[in-house]
Amino acid sequence: MYDLAKTESAVEQKDTKISARNVQVYYGDSHAIKDVDVDIEDKTVTAFIGPSGCGKSTFLRCLNRMNDTIDICRVKGDILLDGEDIYDPKVDPVQLRAKVGMVFQKPNPFPKSIYDNIAYGPRIHGLAKNKADLDEIVEKSLRRGAIWEEVKDRLDAPGTGLSGGQQQRLCIARAVATEPEVLLMDEPCSALDPIATAQVEELIDELRQNYSVVIVTHSMQQAARVSQKTAFFHLGNLVEYGETGQIFTNPVDPRTESYITGRIG
Ligand SMILES: Nc1ncnc2c1ncn2[C@@H]1O[C@H](COP(=O)(O)OP(=O)(O)O)[C@@H](O)[C@H]1O
Ligand SMILES: [Mg+2]
Fold first, then answer.
1. CA distance 245 to 53
2. From ligand 1's centre to the CA of 177, what distance in Å?
3. Which ligand has an atom closest to residue 27 CA?
4. Checking phi first, is residue 126 left (phi over 0); if not, alpha (psi -120 to 50) or beta?
5. What tens-digit pLDDT sequence spans the chain (265 residues)?
6. To test ligand 1's pocket by mutation, which of 48, 52, 58 has the most ligand atoms within 8 angstroms of CB?
7. 197 alpha carbon to ligand 2 midpoint, in Å?
8. Quick one: which atom of ligand 1 is closest to the CA of 55?
9. How many helices (H) and strands (E) does the chain have?
10. Taking a C-beta distance cutoff of 8 angstroms, is the pair 158, 114 a contact?
C-alpha cells in the first residue's frame, strides 16, 4: 500500500541532532502540545504526520523558536540542539534560525532577484568575504536546491517570476545558503503539482546526506516515500515514533493504526 523504498537505510543508528523533553505548548489557555519527548536524528528525514490541528506545525516551530513570533504562544520543556538548550537566554533566535532553517507550505521568495534571494542570508550572517565568495555560495546553494540549471542564465530575474515548483526549490536553496544543520519543512509540497512534488521529494532525499530534515506532511504516501523516521501526532500528543517502515506496516498504538488505515483523519 505504501512505497517504503527509502526506509531501509534507517536501520543504521544515527546521532541525535535535536532532543526534546517534556515539551508543552500553550496558545493562551489552550494546551496545544502535551508532554512531547523525541530525539530527532542527524542525516535522517523525519516525518511528522497526523490529522489536521493535531499540533504538527506547532511542534515543528518549537525547533527553531518560530513560536516566539506568536504573542500568545508559550513553550515549556527542554529542546537541545547538539546538547545545547536553544531556549537559553544567551541564544540569538536569528542565529538559531540560520542553523535550523525553515521552508514553508507556500513558496515565499523575497521580492528580489533570484541571486539576491540566495545572497540575502549569507550577507547578513557575514558568510562571504567578497563578491566572488558570494557568487560561489549562490551557485552552490542553487545546485543543492536542484534549480541551478534552470536559473543560471537569469540570476537577475525576480524570484517571484518562477513557477511554483521552482519557487519552492529556490526557497530550499535559500534555506541551505546559510549552511544550516537542520531543515524544517512544513508541508513543502502542498502547493505544488505532482511533477514539482517529485522533484522536491528527490531533493529532500539528497539533502539528508548533509542535514537532519524534518518534514510535516498530510500525505502519508509522501511520509512513506521520503522519511526514515515517522512521528504520529494526535490531539497534541506524540502517540508513536519509530522507523517509518514499522509505523506504516506494524504500528503499536491503535490510534496510529486507525490513522494509517484511514479510519481517523
Ligand atoms: N497562532 C495560533 N493561535 C492560536 N491557536 C493556534 C495557533 N496556531 C495553531 N493553533 C492551534 O493549535 C492546535 C495545533 O495547530 P497546528 O500546529 O497548526 O496543527 P497541524 O499543523 O497539525 O494542523 C490547533 O488547535 C490550532 O487551532
Ligand atoms: Mg500545520
1. 24
2. 29
3. 1
4. left
5. 777 877 655 456 789 999 999 999 999 999 999 999 999 999 999 999 999 999 999 999 999 999 999 999 999 999 999 999 999 999 999 999 999 999 999 999 999 999 999 999 999 989 999 999 999 999 999 998 989 999 999 999 999 999 999 999 999 999 999 989 999 999 999 888 898 899 899 999 999 999 999 999 999 999 999 999 999 999 999 999 999 999 999 999 999 999 999 876 5
6. 58
7. 18
8. 17
9. 10, 10
10. yes
Which amino acid, 37? D
* Domain residue ranges of the chain, discontinuous segments joined by +: 15-260
Among 23, 25, 27, name the best residue to mutate to test ligand 1's pocket (greatest count of ligand atoms within 8 A of Cβ): 27
- The CATH number of the domain covering residues in 15-260: 3.40.50.300
pTM for the predicted model, two decimal places: 0.93
Classify residue 127 by its DSSP letter. -
